[in-house]
Design a protein that fits this description.
The chain is an alpha+beta fold. The chain is 19% helix and 43% strand. The termini are far apart.
Length: 157
Amino acid sequence: MSSFRTLTACLFAPCIASFATGAQAGEEWFHATAPMAQFEGGYGDHDADFGIGYGCSTIGSSLDIDLKGNHVGTGTGRITIDGTVLTDAPITFDATRGTTRMAFHSSWKDSPAQRAAYDRVIAAIASGRAMSVRFGDGTDVPVPLKNSSAITSCLVR
């Protein structure tokens, strides 16, 4: 099955996240749409140790950032965009997958403040030039944001 068909067969972010590190050849942003107002995509290289996956539908939206290995350290990660700290977020280690994850999720059930905080992350990624993701052990991963603007399809407003 092609990567595109695999992505569009997913219904929501837990599925897209599993393909984030291997869905596309080349370190670049990729985006896909599916029937019934579903959007998904991410950033990653086929054999990369790092990947970003996002997905959304009418019930909610999700953004997952994964790095192979245990990089939990302090338990808190940080996203910086264009040199400005955007947010600190909890990170977890999944021993089954062998990855450390920083996850952002929102749905129509969340409060307006929670939806606004999630949208702030999505909008900053879409409009920024460069992002840095720092994991709890100090590992810092730079991510170019060129061609990331389609992620705004997953604003929850």
